[in-house]
């Protein structure tokens, strides 16, 4: 994958009808994919090297983003999903890599306003089920 523009990393939320709306105004985004390891090392492990059990750990994804309010529809949808406490489908579009899609829960939604600047928000998502990955061309 060659260098990509950070602004092309997109976060989209299911608008309630199965179509996705881009969460507007995001300036920074971070996606983390993690898997817990299950250690099965025992007294007879060769050279006392750690052994891991493949496919046994818990996998998860988290996403964080910071932005400004720009689009009334996506802002309203994010707020409503948070206050309803529901889990909805999201898409994370990574340019020239692919789309990660599945259920996420908003784990935090922070608002911030500096006296001489615009109001900003911070959003954090945690995966809440199986995710899919669809590769994209470069």
What does this structure look like?
- The radius of gyration is 19 Å and the shape is elongated.
- It is mainly beta and 138 residues long.
- Strands 1, 2, 3, 4, 5, 6, 7 and 8 form an eight-stranded antiparallel beta sheet that branches.
- The model has no long low-confidence stretch (mean pLDDT 88).
- It has a single domain, classed as Pnp Oxidase, Chain A (Roll).
- It has one helix and eight strands.
- 13% of the residues are buried.
Task: Provide keyphrases for this structure.
8 strands; mainly beta; 138 residues; 8-stranded antiparallel sheet
Offer a concise description of the structure.
This protein is mainly β and 138 residues long.
At CATH level 2, the architecture is Roll
Q: How large a portion of the residues is in β-strands, by DSSP E?
A: over 45%
Overall body shape: elongated
Per CATH, the superfamily is Hcp1-like
Low-confidence stretches: none
Discrete helix count: 1
CATH structural class: Mainly Beta
Give the helix level as a range of percent.
under 10%
Radius of gyration: 19 Å
Topology:
Elements: E1 10-14, E2 20-22, E3 26-35, E4 59-68, H1 72-84, E5 88-94, E6 98-113, E7 119-127, E8 132-135
Antiparallel strand pairs: 1-2, 1-5, 3-4, 4-7, 5-6, 6-7, 6-8
């Amino acid at each position: 994958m060659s260098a990509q523009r950070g602004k092309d990393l997109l976060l989209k939320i299911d608008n309630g009808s199965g179509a996705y709306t881009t969460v507007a105004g995001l300036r920074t985004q971070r996606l983390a994919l993690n898997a817990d390891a299950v250690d099965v090392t025992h007294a007879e492990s060769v050279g006392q090297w750690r052994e891991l059990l493949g496919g046994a750990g818990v996998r998860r994804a988290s996403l964080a983003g910071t932005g400004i309010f720009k689009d009334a529809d996506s802002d309203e949808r994010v707020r409503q999903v948070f206050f309803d406490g529901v889990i909805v489908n999201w898409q994370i579009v990574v340019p020239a890599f692919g789309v990660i899609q599945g259920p996420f829960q908003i784990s935090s939604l922070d608002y911030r306003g500096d006296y001489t600047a615009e109001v900003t928000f911070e959003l954090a998502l945690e995966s809440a089920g199986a995710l899919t990955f669809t590769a994209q061309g470069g």
